[in-house]
Structures are given as C-alpha cells and as structure tokens.
Amino acid sequence: MRYVVGPVAELPPGSSTIVYPDKVKSGVGVFNVDGEFFALKNTCPHMGGPLCRGRIRGTTAGALPADCQPEVRWVRQGEIVSCPWHHWEFDIKTGRTIFESRQKVRSYPVSVETAEELERLKSGVETVPVSVEGATIVLEV
Fold first, then answer.
1. Which pTM value belongs to this model?
2. Which of 59, 109, 115, 118 could form a disulfide with 140 if both were Cys (CB 3.0 to 4.6 A apart)?
3. Closest listed residue to residue 109, CA positions, set 52, 42, 28, 15
4. What is the residue-wise DSSP string for 28-96?
C-alpha cells in the first residue's frame, strides 16, 4: 500500500511528521535527514512509547586524537530520535538502537515522486513526464 505524505517543501531538512496510514494504527514518523527521507513506526520497542514524538538529535562518540587525550564528540546531528518515555535512542536511517541491542524499530521505504509520476501511479496509466514543478513524499506501508 502506498500512502501520500505530502509535498517535499512541507518537510524541510531536520523536520519530521507523523502520518496515520490505515494499516499502522500507531502511526509512522517520516523524517527528512539532510534531504533524504526515512520512515519509522511510531512505537518504541522498549515499552510502546510514541517514539517519533521524541527529540531529533545527535549522539556522542569517543575519539582518540593524535595527542592521545581521549575526548567525547557530538556526532550524527539530526540522525537520532530519542523516545520521549525512557529516552532510548534509535538511528533514523536504520531503525536500530544506537547502543548494542537486538531491538529495532520497523522502518518503511520512502520515495519522492514528481507530480507527473504521482498522477501516473494514481491513474495506472503510463505517461512520459515533461516537466517537474514539485515533488511529493510517498510512504510504502
């Protein structure tokens, strides 16, 4: 099943939205990470919290620079979502926890379709696109 999320212009980089396709009662979070779109089920596998309502952020990583003085750096800004209930963190691009665990959030394919492609999909008739004036985000559930 395909679900039209909305125009690309309405979901700029760093933002997200939650949509409610019929097949996914809890909703699906759609994220724009630096111009790429990703979708995760809006349910944290830890205790069922509304994952996609959490903060979008980065995470920390250890580093050992040339001077051998260990340091902690902030990395992957905008690629991590933190569940608002217990702050479990998940990689938006893969749905995996950022700590070692077998827990994973279901992810869904997302595509960006031109207006002409979207009309062709709706009608079932193959057409040849002539120009692109806008684009729409489409979620596959």
1. 0.81
2. 109
3. 28
4. EEEEEETTEEEEEES--TTT---GGGSEEEEEEEEE--TT---EEEEEEEEEEEE-TTT--EEETTT-B
Residues counted in the chain: 141
Kindly report, residue by residue over 68-85, the tens digit of the pLDDT. Answer: 899 999 999 999 999 999
Kindly indicate whether the domain formed by 2-140 is annotated with CATH number 2.102.10.10.
yes
Q: Give the Cα separation of 20 and 23 in Å (integer).
A: 8
Q: Is 130 exposed, middle or buried (0-12, 13-18, 19+ CB in 10 A)?
A: exposed
- Which amino acid, one-letter code, is at 76? R
Task: Enumerate the domain spans of the chain.
Answer: 2-140
The answer to whether 10 and 136 are in contact (CB under 8 A) is no
pLDDT at 115 over 80: no
Confidence label for 125 from pLDDT (cuts 50, 70 and 90): low
Q: Are 90 and 98 in contact (CB under 8 A)?
A: yes
